[in-house]
Amino acid sequence: MSKNINPDWLPFLNPEFEKPYFKSLWRFVEVEYNTTVCYPPKSDIFNAFNSCAFDDLKVVILGQDPYHGPGQANGLCFSVADGIMHPPSLKNIFKEIQSDLGTDYPVSGNLERWAKQGVLLLNPTLTVREHEAGSHQKQGWETFTDRVISQISAEKENVVFLLWGGFAKKKSKLIDTQKHYVLTSGHPSPLSANRGYWFGNKHFSETNSLLVQNKFSEIAW
């Protein structure tokens, strides 16, 4: 299970792996992956933790479920594998970056380049059944990822949390806002963005300003 997790996460995650709720969750995941098509690929379930080392972490972006279409999910929230068409939410994220920072629209939707710079791209539910959004919710993943958020809050300082949409905003209760920064807006999905709740939030320039203020390097979004 831990082979695709950066080792510096293991002191925080190994205790969770031993708890009854997680053992029950993993039994469920094993059965699902053995009997039906699920995403992301099993080797990428913990990709968020493999791609962003705990020591390097300085920004957290929360999603919800992995993408549930073929070839899309790669274990990083909002991210898709190279060569895959950009889903609507990711398109709106890139459009906001274009507007906010004056950069070109990216060719690749693979956000591993962000993760390598210290951005944890975390889906609160790490797996999903094909074409069934929410199908792996309430099995234990939320308990696990809530614990991750709480541990980051406790162990780190001056992390920028980007909480987009109602689901992500509820996680603010897990974050010590005396130590960290929490930026909120509507979700980048078309439904929210087209109602004016996403575009113009300037979260990417604001995040970089906060990082520089705390003597961290900017993210090359």
Automatic annotation (TrEMBL):
Gene3D superfamilies in alphabetical order: Uracil-DNA glycosylase-like domain
Domain of life: Bacteria
The UniProt record lists the keyword DNA repair: yes
Top EC group: hydrolase
InterPro entries per record: UDG_fam1 (IPR002043), Ura-DNA_Glyclase_AS (IPR018085), Uracil-DNA_glycosylase-like (IPR005122), Uracil-DNA_glycosylase-like_sf (IPR036895)
Main location: cytoplasm
E.C. no: 3.2.2.27
A GO molecular-function annotation: uracil DNA N-glycosylase activity
Keywords: Cytoplasm, DNA damage, DNA repair, Glycosidase, Hydrolase
Catalytic residues identified in the record: 65
Residue span(s) of domain Uracil-DNA glycosylase-like: 50-211
SMART domains tied to this protein: UDG, UreE_C
Listed Pfam families: UDG
Cellular localization per UniProt: Cytoplasm
Catalytic activity: Hydrolyzes single-stranded DNA or mismatched double-stranded DNA and polynucleotides, releasing free uracil
Biological function: Excises uracil residues from the DNA which can arise as a result of misincorporation of dUMP residues by DNA polymerase or due to deamination of cytosine.
Family under the similarity heading: Belongs to the uracil-DNA glycosylase (UDG) superfamily. UNG family.
Protein name: Uracil-DNA glycosylase
Organism: Formosa undariae
